[in-house]
Specification:
It contains five helices and no strands. The protein has 167 residues and is mainly α. The two termini are 19 Å apart.
Amino acid sequence: MHGKDGMDETINILARVGIVGVALIGGALFGFSSFIMAALARMPDAEGIRAMQNINKTVFTPWFMVPFFGTAVLGVGAVALGLFNTDQGWWLPMASAGVLYVLGVFVVTAAGNVPLNNALAAVDADDPASAELWRKYCVVWTRWNHVRVIASVFALIQFGGALRALS
């Protein structure tokens, strides 16, 4: 790929792949924010804990992890491409899409949701003391998840903005 046309084609492809990755991950996260966590919180505490512990074990599949990590790598690349091409109309939406996904989804997951998941994994669902942790978990985990959903929506919009800037 040479020149502006080659770079435009690269941005076109990366923005479209970014849209798909963010839509897949954001959609999964939206399900948790909109109804899954509410349903789990309505279950008896031990059942809700066990259900979420199982969800947290089964999330480690290529169907989730490839778009989750792949979009993070693409996001870092989007930031770099944007910052090295500030003379192009797509640079800001492309870079901001990457920042939104990497910080708002990936980093929030690592710093917010994963530590909560690890704490939940360490409890015995049948121990009555676990109920208090579960109730707090549902509130705090869901708040962090809302951040991830909002970041996903805005990242998707920004990837779309990069495409619009190409035309």
